[in-house]
Amino acid sequence: APRRALKTRGNTPKYGLIFHSTFIGRAAAKNKGRISRYLANKCTIASRIDCFSEVPTSVFGDKLREQVEERLAFYETGEPPRKNLEVMKEAVVEASEVVAEVKRRQEKKEKKRKKREKRRLEALAAAAEEGAENSVMETEENDVGAKKKKKKKQQQQPEEEEAEAEPEENGVEEEEEEPLPKKKRKLVVEPEQEEEEEKKKKKKKKKK
Question: Where does the record place the Nop domain (predicted)?
């Protein structure tokens, strides 16, 4: 409705969206404008309180609603409403009590959460310690196994060395037992042949 009024350059509506409120519906025709302005003011105050309060409470909203009801009754019956200062003092006292209760509950929740977190961390630490112990045990077992393997290797190495040494000794012996070269053989054989030839010659002479 306000947009349409601005576009057509007509008069803006007197009540706007607040006109649909039950407070205005219950008011008399001559009091609709007054109660709508009063309701708009109380809505503005409520929105500011909600915006700047640390712990949101419904205390101020309830008190403001009571004020609107009292103002509506004042328009109809002429009964004077309470002053705004009195209502706000009552609201502040009640709101402080509510806030204290809410803070207590939040502290309890925080303590419980911290306890749960502490237990969880302790459980994780215990699990980590168990894992570390298991890993230490495994490493020790691996070290023992490696030492045994090293000992076996060391035992095998001397055997291999002995095995390698034996063929060398055999080789030396074989070298010593190797037959003489052909030239030496001839030299050794020639004196024997000469002796045999001499013997044969002597025998022939005797026969003659």
Answer: 1-77
Q: How many domains does the chain have?
A: 1
- The pLDDT of residue 185 is 47
Q: Span 92-101, mean pLDDT?
A: 90
CA distance 108 to 103: 9
| Distances, alpha carbon 160 to alpha carbons 120, 146, 152, 157, 201, in Å | 59, 21, 12, 5, 62
Q: Does residue 135 belong to any structural domain of this protein? A: no
pLDDT of residue 195: 67
Output the domain CATH number for residue 81: 1.10.246
Q: How many residues does the chain have?
A: 208
> What is the distance between the alpha carbons of residues 122 and 66, in angstroms, rounded to a whole number?
53
